[in-house]
Amino acid sequence: MPLHPAQILFLSSLFLGTLITLSASSWFTAWLGLELNLLSFIPLISSKYNQYSSEASLKYFLIQALGSSIILASAPCSLTFEITPNTMICSALLLKMGAAPTHFWFPSVMEGINWYQCILLMTIQKIGPMLMLSYTLPATSAHILVVSSILSSIVGSLGGLNQTLIRKVMAYSSINHMSWMIAALLLNENLWAIYFMVYAAVSSSIVLILQSQQIFHFSQLSNHNFKTSSLKLTSFIAFLSLGGLPPFLGFIPKWLVIQELASAKAFIWLLFLLASALITLFYYLRIALTSMTLSSPKLKTNLLQSSKSMLTAIMFLNLFPIFTPLALMLPF
């Protein structure tokens, strides 16, 4: 799908805002990068022809503006009331990225936007706030992050059980993965980078398949024939990979986080994360089994049909841990 020149402009400034936050040397510059990121994302998701996207963009703007105002208010509050600014900044950043207990806006915004915008919201839009969270460590905000991680794991796992809209399922899945990313961020920034890159790759591969088939609801999955067994198998593997089932790619970063948490003797925290991972795997299995077994002969246009290379790339991506030992055996 060709992009409009205005969309290219806003996408460029969106990435620029993330880079400014990444390379910032002061809190003000990092905040400036977040604002540029926000002001670039609003035009990308708003549309006067779609009332749902207009509502989603308004909700997103109000929440992000509230988070930004809390970050700005942290400086005078710390001088006047002797409040630790890290606590206020940490709370505002959790609100901006949609982690529990300030997650309520995230599923409703996801519901009102299309699949390509969902990729941006689930991946790029989380980089800036998470990088700024790492600037608050080590500080008094560490216990807030632990509580937020546990709550995100509970909300993300239980919230997705009751949903029939695929975009809401992906939203609660993203909240659950945020609990693992917060844990990785507290343990090791390199571990967070690995987890985020794997999550972004796997979730994007699922969204591309769902976008190509125009699937938004569970009933569409049960009435949909993927037309080719390779596309059906690829979607099945991608969902299981996002759930963190071994030996797929999504399991590798979770394995690393489990090792680090076990080494740090944070067993109660690890118990919550593992229990939530099993529940999320259940609703991924429900989606995957529906797409595998309940297909009818109705056909839709398959945009991925002509692109065998994309299917192969998604399949190889999620089966990467299986292929890695074979690659190591090569003579070169």
Automatic annotation (TrEMBL):
One GO CC term, this protein: mitochondrial inner membrane
Catalytic reaction list: a ubiquinone + NADH + 5 H(+)(in) = a ubiquinol + NAD(+) + 4 H(+)(out)
Chief location bin: mitochondrion
Short name of any one Pfam family annotated for the protein: Proton_antipo_M
Enzyme class: translocase
Membrane topology, record value: Multi-pass membrane protein
Location in or out of the cell: Mitochondrion inner membrane
Keyword vocabulary terms for this entry: Electron transport, Membrane, Mitochondrion, Mitochondrion inner membrane, NAD, Respiratory chain, Translocase, Transmembrane, Transmembrane helix, Transport, Ubiquinone
Source species, domain of life: Eukaryota
Keyword Transmembrane: yes
NADH:quinone oxidoreductase/Mrp antiporter transmembrane domain sequence ranges: 24-74, 87-280
EC number: 7.1.1.2
GO biological process entries: mitochondrial electron transport, NADH to ubiquinone
Transmembrane domains' residue ranges: 6-39, 60-81, 143-162, 192-210, 231-252, 267-289, 310-330
Family: Belongs to the complex I subunit 2 family.
UniProt name for this protein: NADH-ubiquinone oxidoreductase chain 2
Taxonomic source organism: Notostomus gibbosus
Lineage: Eukaryota, Metazoa, Ecdysozoa, Arthropoda, Crustacea
